[in-house]
Amino acid sequence: MPEYKIKLAEQADSKNEQASALFEEGTHARHKADAYVRITVWLATVLLLTAIGQRFHFRIVRLCTLVLAVVLLTMALYFMLTLPHM
């Protein structure tokens, strides 16, 4: 019977569409938050390498850790500047 429509079924479909839209929005926000956390870990790694590099007595080892820290810092800054802001 095509003329017979259940009102609660139409409401359920509407609520399901709203729930799907909110779920997609939450998924997008989670991906953005994960990117910010990843950058924070990169910056913490730069701090760690800088601190560890100061403990070595050999100049070449200090220089290598400093170069690695600068490369990671540059990459982290690039990713930070290209991320969408709130």
Helix/strand/pairing category: mainly alpha
Q: Determine the strand fraction and express it as a percent band.
A: under 5%
Largest sheet: none
Rg over C-alpha atoms, rounded to the nearest angstrom = 25 Å
Question: How does this structure look, described?
Answer:
- With 86 residues, this protein is mainly α.
- The protein has one domain.
- Helix content is 83%, strand content 0%.
- Helix 1 packs antiparallel against helix 2.
Quick description:
This protein is 83% helix and 0% strand. The protein has 86 residues and is mainly alpha-helical. The chain has one domain (7-82).
What structural keywords apply?
86 residues; mainly alpha; 83% helix; rod-shaped
Topology of helices and strands:
Blueprint lengths: L6 H47 L5 H24 L4
